[in-house]
Amino acid sequence: MDAIEERKVYRLVLTGGPCGGKTTGQSRLCTFFENLGWKVFRVPETATILLSGGIKFADLVADEVYKFQENLLRTMIQIENTYFELGRTSNKNCLIICDRGFMDASAYISKEKWDRMMRSNNWNPVELRDNRYNQIIHMVSAANGAEEFYATEEHSCRSEGVTLARDLDYKAASAWIGHPYFDVIDNSTDFENKVNRMIECVCQKLGIDIGDRLSITSRKVKFLVSGPMPADSAFPAFQDFEVVHHYLQCAGPRVQARLRKRGQNGRWSYIHTIRRPQQHGQSIEVRTQLSHRDYLNMLTQQDDAHFTIFKKRRCFLVNNQYFQMDIYKEPSHPRCKGLILLETYTSLTGDRLKNILPKFLNIVKEVTGQPDYSMFNLSLREDWNNTKKFCYSLHDQDDGDVKTNGHTQKMINGKA
């Protein structure tokens, strides 16, 4: 593979409600990655460009609002494409920070008009949400959890009161529900740590070891959910996806590789993930977006020791927290029958964590880090009592015999 192929071009959308720290966060993120030797492009917010020319959104009639949003999106796509093309030809790793993205516009128009706009322009929202950008980060408005810091005086385009700001914040976050790498940065810490959590979140997705340069506070937590599933009406706005995972053959015992196909309505995105142990007690996941052709080529490396995993994934937002719920489907090992797992990223612990969990789900217990609930182990064809492939932890440095559930197994350091 030559040097050009190895370079990274990472397309990030930084969005959020009014007074959420988006501007400061963008500046800090830019400095951080430039110090790592990356080229950083900052795509300006299209709405701000257009509104600065004298357009007053509140003065527009319904038809004008529709045409304004339509032209805004056409302009946004062209502006972004300019930066994306520059990123592809850069001789360095390149981070492209988009000040809001395509789906943000859906927060300001009715669903009926949005669907009509998509049809008339032959735009596919799945393609423009899931495949256009590598990651979405929503910075929650100070009006939602840090009200004493909410202000409008220093922003020429901001005039929202606290109540309206909260509503706009929720709508902006809801617009991105369903993106495979969508992170919500709330106000559960002070502003400095809020920005650090945002930078950390980008580094985690890119597989960059940040060491002790940032105060690490966020972690992935996983919960076991008991069925039956509540009715759809019990959920807030959600997106459902079909997800298929294939584990691939790996050269070493401490490395895991898998393919993921994820889609809606016959439209799919493809991701290759490699997990390996890293310093500072964290495992690193490096994700690469694939074309359909590359996905099919890599499928030839499928590991026959694992079942293909089929899930329905439901994504939704509750209490400023983004959740993904995986409902395992047939065909799979009997151990997966009826299995429902809920995941989120958060800096909260204890009772504060319990208070943000969805009340309409029957959450049995937290299973974060428990190997019995890792997808790698769940997908194993062999019974756990009779296999040497069961994985415990990526972080231990030595293989060894471990007794668990009444049987002895060889430790292969891995956790999915």
Describe this structure in words.
- This protein has 416 residues and is of the alpha+beta class.
- It is 28% helix and 27% strand.
- It has helices at residues 3-6, 22-35, 46-51, 62-89, 111-120, 125-131, 162-174, 191-206, 292-298, 350-356, 375-378; strands spanning 9-16, 39-43, 94-99, 135-139, 182-185, 219-226, 238-247, 256-264, 267-277, 283-290, 309-318, 321-329, 340-346, 362-366, 401-404, 407-410.
- The strands form three sheets. The protein has a nine-stranded antiparallel beta sheet.
- Mean pLDDT is 82; it is low at 1-5, 152-159 and 395-416.
Number of helices: 11
Poorly predicted ranges: 1-5, 152-159, 395-416
Helix and strand pattern: HEHEHHEHHEHEHEEEEEHEEEHEHEE
Number of strands: 16
**What's the gyration radius in Å?**
22 Å
Tell me roughly what share of residues is in helical segments. 25-40%
Structural class: alpha+beta
Largest sheet: 9 strands, antiparallel
Strand content: 25-35%
Gap between N and C termini, in Å?
28 Å
Average pLDDT, all residues: 82
> What shape does the CA trace take?
globular
- Write out the strand line-up for the largest beta sheet, numbering strands in chain order: 10-9-8-7-11-12-13-6-14
